[in-house]
Specification:
This protein has about 375 residues and is an alpha+beta fold. Helix content is about 25%, strand content about 25%. Strand 8 and strand 9 form a beta hairpin. Helix 2 runs antiparallel to helix 3 (about 40-60) and helix 3 packs across helix 6 (about 135-145). The longest helix has 17 residues, at about 40-60.
């Protein structure tokens, strides 16, 4: 049995919630009520304070233990004699007051007293009592410590200031700002998106392939707080038909920075092919003929990207730029798996660089 549940209620969790459940609840509530997302709703800022302050206590095992046993008022007074009845309930006030946790009636006899707490870490309740940190600092520290990487597919940073930016791109992520009174703190640096090339062969893009990429990332050691470098394996599926420029995105897997963790985007690049040139979903290949073949006829074996072979013959004459199209022998469409482009065979004619007088005369007689 806990003395009170108001901090748990603020995060919509039970008093038996695990640290992981408390983190997830705070993440969801803080993102929902953050002032940058609710510029036209002043009450959201107060709710943001409440959930941040609740998280500050419940995420600390020692503070949570004291809160569970004696209540918030006991913490804010700095301890001392435990409240009578084994708990420090808060009959009125508390959450919902305009200043977050302000205005909480005191415990025991002698009437009531109110505690007013600054969000800048200044004096709060009684002498030596606990004071809440700035809610923006709580929020920033949460994501700095890896709170972003909790399995949510949404790009959390895109919810602030008009969307997530990329290195050198437009837009930006949340620059945590001071809400309410107190000194303004320096803006938190934007979290960047790092882009890396991913060269792939035409065969890999035709068939699709599963890739494992080993990256090195800089993080903070949980114990010492110092920077460290760790290896991370990323698994990615290249779907058949992906084109050059396709981005494969990983959220929150890069270096940890103040304010969050970098996103990593791999950008598909097509390696040059010995036979084919890709044109959207079509493939083009070239057949080179000398002048004699172009005039008198020729035969070629034509390969396809998936290993089949066709025989192509022409009796001549065949002009430069002649094309033969093989429907549905090109690249697959990544969005329509049963649809393929065409294969186009184009003829190029090699003309001689010089002719003797006798050859010229002979050609004139023939042509």
């Amino acid at each position: 049995m806990v003395a009170e549940t108001k901090l748990y209620d603020a995060l919509s969790v039970s008093s038996s919630a695990s640290q992981e459940e408390i983190k997830k609840a705070y993440r969801k509530a803080a993102l929902k009520h953050h002032p940058d997302k609710n510029k036209d709703n002043p009450s959201a800022g107060e709710k943001f304070k409440e959930v941040s302050q609740a998280y500050e206590i419940l995420s600390d095992p020692e503070k949570r233990k004291a809160y569970d046993q004696y209540g918030l008022d006991f913490l804010l007074r700095g301890g001392g004699e435990a409240p009578s009845g084994g708990g420090g309930g808060m009959p009125g006030g508390g959450f919902g007051m305009p200043s977050g946790f302000g205005g909480i009636p005191g415990m025991g006899g002698g009437g009531t007293r109110s505690f007013h707490f600054s969000t800048g870490g200044g004096p709060g309740g009684g002498a030596g009592g606990f004071s809440f940190s700035n809610p923006e600092n709580i929020f920033a520290d949460f994501f700095k410590q890896g709170g972003a990487g909790m399995g949510d597919d949404d790009d959390i940073f895109a919810q602030f200031n008009g969307g997530g930016g990329s290195r050198g791109g437009s837009g930006g992520r949340s620059k945590f700002r001071e809400s309410g009174g107190g000194r303004r703190r320096a803006p938190t640096p934007e979290v960047t998106t790092v882009e890396k090339p991913l060269p792939l062969s035409l065969e890999e893009l035709f068939n699709g392939v599963h890739k494992k990429m080993k990256i090195k990332r800089k993080t903070y050691d949980d114990g010492s707080g110092k920077r460290k470098v760790e290896d991370k394996i990323l698994d990615m599926d290249i779907l058949p038909g992906y084109k050059a420029g396709t981005k494969i995105k990983f959220k929150g897997v890069g270096d940890q920075e103040e304010g969050g963790t970098q996103d990593l985007h791999f950008i598909v690049q097509e390696k040059p092919h010995d036979v084919f040139k890709r044109e959207d979903d079509n493939l083009r290949m070239y057949v080179d003929l000398d002048l004699k073949e172009a005039l008198t006829g020729w035969t070629r074996t034509i390969p396809t990207i998936d290993g089949k072979k066709f025989t192509l013959s022409k009796g001549g004459p065949t002009g430069p730029g002649f094309t033969e199209t093989y429907p549905h022998q090109g690249m697959p469409n990544s969005k329509k798996s049963k649809q393929r482009g065409d294969m186009i065979v184009e003829v190029r004619v090699k003309f001689p660089t010089s002719l003797t007088l006798a050859q010229k005369t002979h050609l004139k007689d023939i042509l």
